[in-house]
Design a protein that fits this description.
The chain is mostly beta strands. Helices cover 0% and strands 50% of the residues.
Length: 115
């Protein structure tokens, strides 16, 4: 099982980025997939989850209305579209899946929001 995030980078406040999480070793269509983020000295923060049905659970309070999680089962990839980015969105963003009790994280991708 492998999760590989990409798409992070430096963006100005108000800008947008789309993160990708390419999965291998399992079919994302059968599992809930999630995004979390973490800044130094803080606990990992929940961002969003997409269900295997394609629906979503409530987003993290700090990203509601600005971020959207989606999936492409054919590409076995999960996305996080981030709009109206703020400096406080600066973090390492991680992809996560729980496969019947086994928890897997990607290596993370850095997002920096700064002018």
């Amino acid at each position: 099982v492998q999760l590989v995030e990409s798409g992070g980078g430096l963006v100005q406040p108000g800008g947008s980025l789309r993160l990708s999480c390419a999965a291998s070793g399992f079919a994302i269509s059968s599992y809930y997939m999630s995004w979390y983020r973490q800044t130094p000295g803080k606990e990992r923060e929940f961002v969003a989850t997409i269900l295997n049905s394609g629906g979503t659970t409530p987003y993290g309070d700090s990203v509601k209305g600005r971020f959207t999680i989606s999936r492409d089962n054919g590409k076995n990839t999960v996305y996080l579209q981030m709009n109206s980015l703020k400096p406080e969105d600066t973090a390492v963003y991680y992809c996560f899946v729980n496969l019947r009790g086994l928890r897997y994280w990607g290596q993370g991708t850095q997002v920096t929001v700064s002018s």
